[in-house]
């Protein structure tokens, strides 16, 4: 009877009071349920009352307890420490928002012994939120969307301290141990919640785009500089989902990522997330419609190709090559521009980068048509000739391995009248002077292949090479005779005062 009378009394379905928390957040909710939470040591114990409607004393006790743990997060309304199963279905959405507000409190994880009870309570609350979304019970109304975006921003968006970043900018740092964020036990759950939220089929993108806006995306992109590889992996998945969900934001994302690449290439040469960003764009490029827009081609020319310039290109070359290959599959005519870009940024003093460039060059040539190949074959094989004569045996060997590719051999054979005269002097110098036996053997095999392909052309090139060598020898003897005469004249005159002294010249070394 008493229960029936109480049910007839008017109740407030939502009593909302807003206060400013320490971090600038708002909290709102409704008092309901009968779950009492008791903090004991490092554990959080729950005890359920048998009453459906809590009395004033138990509700106040529960609120005092949670206010003591999170003094700035708990306000009048639903008690956020209640379990979802302990409140009626109409109030679960309000409890969801209340729990989101509670999780806006950020703790210091530099000291593992600090706020252990509060950290454990927050972690359990985050897990409850994830489970609630996974169950499909969550309805993404505008207050819920705002609460999720706010909670994610408070917990995830942060400035990395200077000592958090790696001080090296070369490929040698690839083997260093990665740094792991001490707050990952909480960050991981927040990322999981954000991913489930973005991926949910019930999320209305038209409403969510007001909160997942340009500012939110830009700050999310800033997190790619994290040194924690686990965080970058989560960000990679989330950004890809955002790109797929919010079509209106796609041009902005491409522009923002381009700006990250520009800053990395031309200013800092330090960024931890280039590989992950390129991995995202590998799948994005594969979805570009044909014919390619001019904006997409500019992204290739201005953002992707200059990424070959930094010293640390080895840490993301695989992803970069995949992106470029995707462009060439969409539009093979771009092969000439890509090869020109490779030649522009070709390393001069870094042999390891040169080996990597030769590997990527082979992939590009596999997608190159005869027409595009003929446009760039002269400057290309002048560069390859220099690689054939490299004193670093790996560079010379990798350049010779290009002839193991049937497609490249076909392109060369069709244009041998132009290509062989460019590389024949390098082959001859290798057979006479190169110190590495493997390079010497490969060079001999290549000469045999050209002889079988067109022996008359090989003999013609041999004749030109011998003639040039004879001219060079004659010129060298002439210069040597001039120096000897000058030395004789100089030695016959006594040294007085500041008289200049002729120094015997050293043997000159030809460079590419």
UniProtKB/TrEMBL annotation:
Keywords tagged on the record: Cytoplasm
- Write out the GO cellular component annotations: cytoplasm; protein phosphatase type 2A complex
Instruction: Classify the source by domain of life.
Output: Eukaryota
Q: Which GO terms describe its molecular function?
A: protein phosphatase regulator activity
Q: What are the Polar residues biased-composition ranges?
A: 13-24
What GO terms in the biological process aspect are recorded for it?
Answer: signal transduction
Subcellular location(s) per record: Cytoplasm
SUPFAM superfamilies registered for this protein in UniProt: ARM repeat (SSF48371)
Q: Chief subcellular site?
A: cytoplasm
* Chain spans, region Disordered: 1-27
- The reply to whether Zinc-finger figures as a keyword in the UniProt entry is no
* Family designation: Belongs to the phosphatase 2A regulatory subunit B56 family.
Record function comment: The B regulatory subunit might modulate substrate selectivity and catalytic activity, and also might direct the localization of the catalytic enzyme to a particular subcellular compartment.
Tell me the protein's name.
Answer: Serine/threonine protein phosphatase 2A regulatory subunit
Organism (species): Aquilegia coerulea
